Amino acid sequence: MFKNFVAAFIILIPAIILRADRQNMPNLREESNIYQKVYDAPLRLIDGEQARLHQMAGKKPLVLVLLFTRCTGVCYPYLGQLKKQFEQIRQVENEPFQVLAVSFDPRDTQEDMQAMAGAFSLQSDSLWQFAVTDSIEALTKSLGFTALWNEELQQFEHDAILIGLNQQAYITRKLIGFRSNAEIGQLLSSIHNVFSPTFRLPNPNMRFACFDYDPATGRNKPGIGLVIIALPAVLTLLLLFAIWLRTRNKSSNSFR
Amino acid sequence: METTRFNKITSLWIITVLVLFVVAITLGIIMRLNQSELITVSPITFYTDMTVHGLTMIGIWFVAGMAAVNFIMERYVKTSHGVNVFAYVMTVVGVLLLWASTFFGRFHAGWTFLYPLPFKVMWKSWATPTFYFSLAVLGVGWLVWCLSLVSSLLKKYSLKEVFAWQHFSKNPKTETPPFVLIAMISLVGIITCLLAAVILLVLTFAEYYSKGSFVNDALLMKNLTYFFGHTIANEMLYLGLAILYELFSEISGRPKWKTTWYVALAWNFTLIFILTAFFHHLYMDFVQPEGFQIIGQIASYSASLPAAGVTVFSVIVAVYRTKINWSLANLLFFLGVTGWVIGGIGAVIDATISNNFILHNTLWVPAHFHTYNALGNVLFSLAFFQWFSAKYGGGSQRWSKVVLWLLLIGGIGFLTAFYIGGADSIPRRYSSYPEVFATAKTLAAFGALFATVYLSGVLVFFVNISKRCLKILLQRS
After folding, report:
1. Which residues have a Cβ under 8 Å from the Cβ of A238 and sit 6 or more positions away?
2. Among candidates A2, A20, A256 on the partner chain, residue whose Cβ is nearest the Cβ of B156
3. Domain spans of chain B?
4. Is the Cβ of A92 closer than 8 Å to some Cβ of chain B?
5. CATH 3.40.30.10 spans which residues of chain A?
6. A214 DSSP assignment
7. Which of A18, A154, A221, A229 is buried most, with the most CB atoms less than 10 Å from its CB?
8. What is the ipTM of this complex?
9. Which fold has domain B2-474?
10. What one-character-per-residue DSSP string does B158-187 give?
11. Hey, is the C-beta of A26 within 8 angstroms of any chain B C-beta?
């Protein structure tokens, strides 16, 4: 019987593995490409200078913003919001850093980006730099960033994203969407290689969380996950009891 | 006939464990040589070696303890030879799958395979499921083995007897042999941590196959990982202690040890505390409830004291001013207890929350767990191998002193390099050290040199033992 069981097991395993290989991995967008080195893209800055991304990061750690000038969606409101937030943050942040806005649209020129910066009076702000690159694909791939072209709308579908790069040009943190000053502060800590606690984003598909966040009260309540930690001990007790019952019933055949 | 069958399967376990031990030590030496920059391997090879080294060591010394316990248990109850063979087959299949996922698939998430690292595929995509299937195969084999042994014990002993609870009353009518008590306590702990592994694997596979519609909680996964990992690493040591309680007095020519109320109490407490000590692995996890952290520290202190106190006391009483028939086997047992205590003190220091914030990611961690393994648990199992092969394979004790000195000098030197590194805040799990850690490379070279001395001792031992075990294996029933 054991031989058959083992043989069946050995035959089944490769089949299951092959099936597993075809499955998609879960999408952890903010966690993708973290601690990977970003592609050293050649940049054309709006002041006419040319630079490479690693060179810029080496001077000051970078907060990278990816956008495009023909955007009718999130890019302009996002840039406006970031301008306000960084004006507040720079008052309290002591460590040097630079915000670099790079276009991922091949149609964008230095002039387009200059106009975009001008719309928010950022073209002469020392905290900000705007640039275009000829290596969009290599750069976005190394950042784990995807922009899908929508032919009907003539627009890119993309995330509003901030990416932290430390002086060695490693990706230290990503923030997708409009985020609080505190979270941007944590991103700044990460680009200065300061430990900052990170949390995975709330995910509706997370079934057995140790804590459940209640948005109404802003507090965490103990979740089913905490009970699961105790489950092995409970199962062992039940198993022991079951074995004991089974053996007790057969006690007449025991050794004694 | 039955005895011969158990002798054969035990011999097979011994040979297999020793072969894998030599491979795993060699991988460890390669890692230390790379850290010293005397050789160069790629970071991926380093972490692949680290993954295989860690899992192989945990696995082989667990099965070594189980094989020894199964063999000795035959003195008290009838156990299943078929399940023993089944566990062997599953172990071999599991190891082959593990090697396939690591050496060919380049899976290198470390032996703790902390979620969600295995999902961040930086290796062949098939390597992640293969790695998890290797764990599933090993887990099924070992769980069935443990349940079978527990079932065998409960056929003869009642629940009260098997946990030695009758010893809490005056003049107990029956005596539970210390071996039976400790084996049962260890097996229950092992079953619990293997069930934690089962839950962990089920949750992992659920996420893997769900295409993102099911996501796990990282905190839950880490708790379950260490529930399994920490507990099995401790329980395998207790399996070695069960053998020590049975054989040390016998080999030394002393009266057999008996279970008393304090022995029973100590081991029952150990079972409770050991199942909650794993929380000390999550001190760095700021989201872990503070109460769990406190339980982790208290349980770590409490788990080590009863078993260690009673065992050390028993061993000292047994040898102090008494005539002992010293041989390689009981010397290995004796030195194993010493190594276990020293490693245990290192562990308790690290399990103290305030210390852990300094020591957690340093070489102190491998220092303490290598102490109670390389100079503790491993010596318990080698003692059993020596006793078993000499008793059933015959032959004279050759090279005993050489083996002992090589293991001791190699072990102490290799561990000293780890401890000094830990005290000097040299980080663990670095494939190569930046210049800022001035002593790290020298210490790594020092560690590799002494680990090679230790390996030489193991090789001499292996040659002697394997000859006898092969003789047992090839005996006609």
Report:
1. none
2. A256
3. 2-474
4. no
5. 29-191
6. E
7. A229
8. 0.90
9. Cytochrome C Oxidase; Chain A (1.20.210)
10. -HHHHTTGGGGSSS-SS---HHHHHHHHHH
11. yes
